[in-house]
Amino acid sequence: MSAQMDEFDDIKPVVGREELPKGETILWQERPDWWRLALTAFRLKWIGVWFLGFAVWKVGSTHHDTGSWALGFADAATLLPAIGFGVGVIMLLAFLMARSTSFTLTNRRLVMRYGVALPAQLNIPLSDIDSAGLKVNGDGSGDIVLSIPKKGRPSYFQLWPYARPWKFGSAEPLLRAVPGAGEAARLVADALVASQGGARGAVRNARPADEKRAETGFAGAQPAAM
């Protein structure tokens, strides 16, 4: 059995216990942090840098033409409504996406439900997860990437924003902006071991921490760095 992608117009955002077949139990359930989702998936920080750079250029250009710094800053101030609107839209989209998303780990599978306009569900049997990688942010949130067989794998655009960045040709599911990612990763690793009957992979640092971020590999089979 491989990963299965379904789309519904009336799907609930969170998997309920009553939906599970007999013998299947929920081990962990969480929603992504909307602010971290805005920073990572929607690139809010980079958009802010772009707007700032444009404002600086506006100040410099006006000063060059008029010789007045006051006019330069006044001209740049006209960008504030557009900046506020753009940032507000991105934050709203991130909030709505996070609210419509849930990650559910059971003793048999990992379920991802997401989507605002057209909700979708991705069922990944634990037996089909080859390996997993963890990236932890400074606030304790993080991303868990799952390596699954190519057969039946959804496309990058079907998974976005819960797809591993830049893996267009071989998309990998990504549990993005998970609060308490370290504990969540431990539960996923334990479930993989219990499901596959293998030895738990060694936890390791994938590469030096960047901006207080630590990357760790763990797996039911092999560690995998993001």
TrEMBL record:
Membrane-spanning intervals of the chain: 37-57, 77-98
YdbS-like PH domain location: 99-147
InterPro entries for this protein: puhB_PGC, YdbS-like_PH
Keywords from the UniProt entry: Membrane, Transmembrane, Transmembrane helix
Protein name (database record): PH domain-containing protein
Species the sequence originates in: Jiella mangrovi
Residue numbers spanned by region Disordered: 200-226
Keyword Transmembrane carried by entry: yes
NCBIfam families the record matches: puhB_PGC
Keyword Nuclease: no
